[in-house]
Every structure is written in structure tokens, then in C-alpha cells.
Q: What sequence folds into this?
């Protein structure tokens, strides 16, 4: 990250808590818990946990097997990663972030099956949400970056999804702003009964909805799309999404390293989105796995896609308008940005 670059206040809407953990923290927690790791140093562990060349989504998802078992089921660690996450985002100039995670993947009780080959413990998905909330709140207080969370359903675990929407409802006034569907998109499960029911319930209860998969936006009544690069290959769908002013959560570095897009950034679908004045944000997705920062994503699109400072400001305003905060807080966020960008307060919003 270039320190010379001015950090404009920004809004990030698509980043996974468990893909944004500090390697040092994993090493630390493993030591405390007596969990052996295949790496002795931070740089060795970084090599194990990160992708540096374009790969596949499956290889990318395999990386989580290297470290999730260290954090899952440990109250102190779960709270700590949330707290440190806010610190990291504050340093990147992020003023508001929506961070997402699967409560089930960090639990070891009330979850079937218990993930990461753990034995049954006493940390339930509900406890996980509580712990993450505590960490985010303390981080927000200490670092002044506002943080809210999105709870993820997992594509191959449709039996967890009703639980996820119930947790969204329980914590809707306490840190949680939306539901998501994440996981391996090669599993064609967009119409899985469990996910469908959960999204129906979210819609019915007024829980905001985003989804990793452009093709499922209709079926799941999503308000935002995680990535959505391939929607431009379906002109009718793409046209409709533009007309709806659908928000695309774009993750440039992620899209290259997970193999979602052509590795040549000058051919990236984001260029088309920009030309069509689509509604989108720039996001890191899983900065730890990509050994990256939000600033690097901005630098890449500036260098390879010709983004200007004005376009950066516009996309951040779009992100703020498309965030899942309640209306009053959304207005406050927009005013904060207008002020930071030296723009006249736009009261027409
Ligand atoms: Zn994602």
C-alpha cells in the first residue's frame, strides 16, 4: 500500500470477517490454545493462507481449512478478530463497513454438523453473533469506523439457513443489517429449499438481502449482488438490473485471484459497469486470502480501468446510498461523505 496515496473516506459493503483475519492473530490464538500449525512463522503461514496467482473458487475456499479451526469455538478469538477488523478498516480510511460471516462456521454447539472437525463445545451461532457484535462495537468506539454485519447462509448447508434468518431478526436492532448467501457457486443450489425459505422469511420480515450470485437475484429477491460480473453475459437480465439500479458489490482483486474474471484487468466487466453508469461499490472480499488491502483494489482500477477521483467519489456515494443502514443513519453517512469530499450538502436525497 502506497502511504503517499491520500486515503479518501470510503464505504465498504462486501468483506468477509473470516477472510480478513490477521495472520499474527491466528498464530497467537493457535499458541494459546495449543493447536499445532504447519507453519512456524508469520511469513510461512501467510504463504499457506494466501493466493497470489489466479486460481479457482474451490482452491480459494480450501484456504479457509488452514485457519478456521483455530478461531472457531473460541470466544476470545472471535471477539478479537471483529475488533481488529475495525482497526484495520479505520486505517484504510473506511468510515462505514458492512462485514459478513457465517455464525455457524465459528460455532461448536447448536450446529449440525460441527464444522472444522471440532468436538462439541459451548459456543452457539447465537453466541458468535454476540461476540462479533461486542468486538465491532468496541472497535467502533476506539477507531471511529462504523461497522455493521451481514449474516451468511452457506450454499452447501441449506439446513442452517432458517437459523441464519432468525438470528438476523433477533439482532436487527443490534448490529446485524442483512442476510447473504455465500459459498461454492459451482454447486448449483440457487433454488435450494432451505435458502429459498430463509430469503422468503427475510423479505417477509423486512430483513435486507444480498446474494453471491447474479443469477439468483430474482429468485431470492435480493437488493444487492455480490460480484455479479457474469450478468453482462445475459443482456436481458443485465438491462433489467440497470433499470432497477441494482447495486453490484465489485471485488476486483478477488475476481482475478478466484478465477471469476479474466485475469487481465483491462478486460474486466467493471469497465462495462462504469460505462453504463451502473450502481456499484469497490470491496476487498477476503483481504487476508489475497494478502491485500482496500487501497490496492482502488489502485488497480485506477491503473487498469482508468478510474478518476470523481468516479471514486461517485461510487462511494452509491455505496452509501445502497448500504443497509436505516434511512436516518444512511442520511447521516451521506452527509458525512459530502462533507469529507467538500461537496454541497445534497438535501434532495
Ligand atoms: Zn464474498
A:
Amino acid at each position: 500500500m502506497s502511504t503517499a496515496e491520500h486515503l479518501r473516506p470510503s464505504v465498504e459493503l462486501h468483506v468477509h470477517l473470516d477472510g480478513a483475519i490477521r495472520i499474527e492473530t491466528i498464530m497467537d490464538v493457535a499458541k494459546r490454545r495449543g493447536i499445532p500449525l504447519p507453519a512456524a512463522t508469520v511469513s510461512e503461514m501467510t504463504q499457506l493462507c494466501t493466493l497470489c496467482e489466479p486460481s479457482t473458487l474451490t482452491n480459494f475456499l480450501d484456504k479457509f481449512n488452514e485457519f478456521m479451526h483455530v478461531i472457531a469455538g473460541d470466544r476470545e478469538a472471535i471477539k478479537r478478530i471483529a475488533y481488529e477488523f475495525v482497526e484495520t478498516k479505520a486505517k484504510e480510511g473506511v468510515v462505514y463497513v458492512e462485514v459478513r460471516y457465517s455464525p455457524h462456521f465459528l460455532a461448536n454447539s447448536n450446529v449440525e454438523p460441527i464444522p472444522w472437525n471440532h468436538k462439541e463445545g459451548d459456543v452457539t451461532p447465537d453466541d458468535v453473533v454476540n461476540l462479533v457484535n461486542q468486538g465491532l462495537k468496541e472497535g467502533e468506539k476506539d477507531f471511529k469506523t462504523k461497522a455493521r454485519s451481514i449474516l451468511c447462509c452457506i450454499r452447501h448447508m441449506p439446513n442452517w439457513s432458517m437459523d441464519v434468518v432468525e438470528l438476523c431478526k433477533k439482532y436487527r436492532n443490534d448490529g446485524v443489517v442483512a442476510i447473504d448467501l455465500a459459498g461454492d457457486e459451482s454447486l448449483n443450489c440457487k433454488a435450494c429449499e432451505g435458502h429459498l425459505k430463509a430469503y422468503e422469511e427475510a423479505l417477509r420480515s423486512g430483513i435486507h438481502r444480498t446474494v453471491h450470485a447474479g443469477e439468483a437475484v430474482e429468485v431470492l429477491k435480493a437488493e444487492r449482488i455480490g460480484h455479479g460480473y457474469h450478468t453482462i453475459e445475459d443482456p436481458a437480465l443485465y438491462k433489467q438490473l440497470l433499470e432497477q439500479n441494482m447495486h453490484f458489490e465489485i471485488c476486483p482483486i478477488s475476481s482475478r485471484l478466484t478465477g471469476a474474471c479474466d485475469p487481465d484487468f483491462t478486460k474486466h466487466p467493471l469497465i462495462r459497469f462504469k460505462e453504463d453508469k451502473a450502481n456499484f461499490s469497490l470491496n476487498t472480499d477476503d483481504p487476508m486470502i489475497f494478502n491485500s488491502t482496500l487501497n490496492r483494489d482502488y489502485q488497480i482500477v485506477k491503473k487498469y480501468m482508468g478510474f478518476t477521483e470523481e468516479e471514486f467519489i461517485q461510487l462511494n456515494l452509491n455505496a452509501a446510498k445502497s448500504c443497509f443502514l436505516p434511512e436516518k443513519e444512511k442520511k447521516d453517512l451521506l452527509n458525512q461523505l459530502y462533507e469529507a469530499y467538500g461537496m454541497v450538502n445534497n438535501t434532495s436525497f
The beta strands are 10-16, 94-101, 146-154, 176-182, 208-212, 224-226, 247-250, 279-282. Residues 14, 16, 182, 212, 226, 285 surround zinc ion (CB under 6 Å). The first helix runs from residue 23 to 33. Residues 20 and 85 are 7 Å apart (CA to CA).
